[in-house]
Amino acid sequence: MEELRNPIILSFVGLYMLLCIVVGIWALKRTKSTHDFFMAGRNLGVMVTAFAIFSSTLSGFGFVGGPGLVYRLGMSSVWMFVCAIMGFNLSTILLAKRIRLLAELGECISLPDVVALRYGKHSTRLLVAVAILMGVLGYLATQILAMAVVLQDMLSKTELLAAISLEMCVLISCSILVFYSVTGGIVASVYTDLFQGGVMIVAAFFVFLTVLNTYDGGFLEISQIIREGDPEAIGPWGTLGMIGCLSWFFVFGLGASGQPHVITKMMMNRKVSDARFILPVSIVGYFFSALLWIGIGLAMRALVLSGHHPELLSADAAAPAFLQEYAHPILAGIVFAALFAAIMSTADAFLNIGTAAIMHDIPKTMGRKIKNELFWARTTTVLITIFAAIFALYSGDLVAILGAFGWGTFAAAIVPVVTIGFNWKRGTFMAANVAIIASLSINFIVKIFKIQIPYNFDLGALSLLISITLFVGISLMSKPPILDPDVERVMDM
Known about the structure:
The chain is an all-alpha fold. It has helices at residues 5-30, 34-39, 46-73, 78-105, 111-119, 122-155, 166-212, 218-229, 231-234, 242-253, 260-265, 275-289, 291-305, 318-325, 329-365, 373-394, 399-420, 429-448, 459-477, 485-492. 58% of the residues are buried.
């Protein structure tokens, strides 16, 4: 079967691409309005919502960037994905019920809509929409780059396409993504999440067993090899160091409650009471799927250090390389197909919230309504994809670093305004506006001018600390806001 490894893997991926087209056509028939395109009709069940939430959190960031980060930084990466479980709890406890009720109260179809309802100001809606667009740039680029890296690794194993470029793989990936996203909107995304989430839970478990069987001594031998060849990597702080890891603990723990692609899905479930069932399903799904993140990264590092595998040209190649060389061909094919599903559905979710910001939230702030909104939403989806693809190709960053930048941008801008503001009546619109502007300014100035932060302290964590301080401080120094009576009743629940 080994001689048929690549054809088997490509067959599974090809079948998935075909499934994308079928799902897109099916979802097209269910997408009659912008409410369907952006909110899936607010009619999702527990399993669909739960799988959509944990799948969106992992996606290409977790399945390609995660192993790459472990390969490069060792155990530092653990501080990133373990903390996200804490984030699921915070998001559900602090936001799930409240944001679903507010969305229904104001007939909201986007997160900026709900923010405008809470603060009563269009300026806050506009700034949240801009923050979402800025974060989407980094995070959507993560998904596109992850998909292209995996596709290039697979196609380069064939004789016909051995010299295929990363640019061509980006083009192929974006073409499929555009069709899938333009036809189906968020409907295509959430139902694909249900499929790929279930597959990935099972596949990740078997991949982890494969990792344990890579060496006779299992994980103990893997750890010993890394300890001998790169002792710092296997330590509790990895190569990033204590300060860097703790900053990840902060931004990925608290920051999980500020991810708009996750929060928005909490607005889509059919019943408010479903929140208590969504949380445990999301956590279990995320936990088992994350086994792939840590397992592959450490296994590939050990294989390279022991001389059984050549040094990787890029850390992002860790997951594709392990699956191509060491996993059973059928298992590898299933994981690759599920991986593409995770990337595709998450990219669709980011395109969805980015398009909503441009076509719905920004015009609404200016008192205008776009005619034929559904058509222009689909057109905007194409344009955002092109822009993000260019950013992915020429940013020069790893998948995980791009993902961390997008995550940090979202967290710093949205956690104070939404996570704190929706639970604290004292929060004011002026404090929210200043917090968003400050967080975006810090993130992009440091990123653009490549300013080095001492001790590997994460940029997102720094901007989140500053934005929370500004939000709380300015709110306390301002007059208490007068809330809409209905909004106040929801916040009291």
